[in-house]
Amino acid sequence: MAYNEFTWGKARQDFGLTAIEGTRFFGEIEPVAPSEMFTDVTRTQFTLGNRNRK
């Protein structure tokens, strides 16, 4: 199937796919606080990235 011929309806029909709507894929997920290491690394990367502006 060429990309420009692709439709969700045709894919469902051709491949026997089904869609489950109205439910979350992972259910309820509790938020997780980032670790101190993650926060430090991302802060450092953000700072280094901003220095390279031309």
Tell me about this structure.
With 54 residues, the protein is mainly α. It has one domain. Helices cover 44% and strands 0% of the residues. It is built from 2 helices and no strands. The protein has helices at 8-15, 36-51. The longest helix has 16 residues, at 36-51. The protein starts with 7 loop residues before the first helix and ends with a helix.
Q: Identify the quaternary structure here.
A: single chain
Anisotropy-based shape: elongated
| Percent of residues in beta strands | under 5%
Order of helices and strands: HH
- What share of residues is helical? 40-55%
**SS field, number of helical segments:** 2
The count of DSSP E runs of length 2 or more, i.e. the number of strands, is 0
Number of domains: 1
Radius of gyration over all CA atoms, rounded = 22 Å
- Straight-line distance between termini: 44 Å
Essential attributes:
mainly alpha; 54 residues; 2 helices; single chain; elongated
Summarize the structure.
The protein is mostly helical. Helix content is 44%, strand content 0%.
Q: Helices, strands, pairings?
A:
Blueprint: H1 8-15, H2 36-51
